[in-house]
Write a structure and sequence with these properties.
Length: about 100
Amino acid sequence: MKSLEREYEEKRDFIRMFVDAKVEITDPESGEQFTGDSEDLSAGGVAFMCDHSFDEGRKLVVKVSSVQSKLPPLTANMEVIRSIKGEDGRYKIAGTITNVN
């Protein structure tokens, strides 16, 4: 049986969508809340810009609310896999979605 090949460059399990959305981040351990700006979203993960850094492995709750959509916000649990400080001083946080609420 011939294997199916994807006809696009992206080789991830889920296609990433670039989303213009605000992100509310809650650290369930401390109860602290932060805000950020969405970079992209897929069925398996999320990336956003934030003024705060989070350690790899940190569990967070994110609420992604589109600024241009009438869709309800997406609330999910995530685990941080990467936190990289950009030239502007903000951090790009990327994580795996572990559960959608």
